[in-house]
Design brief:
By secondary structure, the chain is mainly β. It has strands at residues 3-7, 10-12, 18-25, 33-39, 45-52, 58-60, 68-73, 78-83, 92-97, 109-113. The strands form 2 sheets. Strands 2-10-9-4-5-6 form a 6-stranded mixed sheet, with no helix packed on it. A 4-stranded antiparallel sheet has the order 1-3-8-7, with no helix packed on it.
Length: 115
């Protein structure tokens, strides 16, 4: 079955950086879109970024543009999210997802931005 395992979260100060990774298995990695979504405390899921696993395609939410960069490693079947200039409002549980509605997603990795 589809398995998505996120890693790389942690506690970082405002302005800091983190790199999240998502290891995938159980489906054909090529030629699909993969997504990063997040859920802040007390809020719903928010789409953050999307990346195509074969073509040169990425998309970002306005909140992520200019600060976050999605990438992929097709050989390792992983996607990553490089997050720079983090802000307290980026604090959330971050998931990688197989679908845009995040119905198929991993267990998440916590990102906390606090001084």
């Amino acid at each position: 079955q589809v398995q998505l395992v996120e890693s790389g979260g942690g506690l970082v100060k405002p302005g800091g950086s983190l790199r999240l990774s998502c290891a995938t298995s159980g489906f054909t990695f090529s030629n699909v879109w993969m997504y990063w979504v997040r859920q802040a405390p007390g809020k719903g899921l928010e789409w953050v970024a999307a990346i195509h696993t074969s073509a040169e395609g990425t998309a970002y939410a306005d909140s992520a543009k200019g600060r976050f960069t999605a990438s992929r490693d097709s050989a390792k079947k992983t996607i990553s999210l490089e997050m720079n200039n983090l802000k307290p409002e980026d604090t959330a549980l971050y998931y990688c997802a197989r679908d845009s509605g995040a119905k198929v997603r991993g267990q998440g990795t916590q990102v906390t931005v606090s001084s």
